[in-house]
Amino acid sequence: MKDNKRMTLVDYSHALTVGEVARRAGVAVSTLHFYETQGLIESWRTSGNQRRYHRSVLRLIAVIRIAQRVGIPLADIKARLDAKPRGKPVSTADWSELSRDWQRDLDERITLLTRLRDQLASCIGCGCLSISDCPLRNPGDRAAEFGAGARIADL
Known about the structure:
The chain is mainly α and 155 residues long. 48% of the residues lie in helices and 6% in strands. It has helices at residues 18-25, 29-37, 57-69, 74-82, 92-126, and strands at 15-17, 44-45, 51-54. The protein has a 3-stranded antiparallel sheet. Strand 2 and strand 3 (51-54) form a beta hairpin. Residues 1-7 have low confidence and may be disordered.
């Protein structure tokens, strides 16, 4: 068991093998290993050094995959899940809170992407990406404060 700030309660009677979790969750075994190294899910080892997972990890993986599918970065997923107690399945209330937070994040990203889409045509027209009035690479002519030269990449 890992030394986390959160206590993990393990119910060994509901243990699933890595293959069972991968098959039931619809992910590759390597994905489970990756999620584990990122601290998103946990397993324990049997006396024969085989990984075992509590079956509640299936719901947790579903939450992670849904969040990834809508574009939430793994670091954000982890941060939100870290605020939840380990050792119990993700509840309906947990999902409501997570999805509300992610909806706010997505709304902000949609606003930014819409603005980008609407301003993109003026950028394509110039082709250089460094004109002083470029709303995408140099909004408000921020590059002017750095002086002349090719400094746009530093912004």
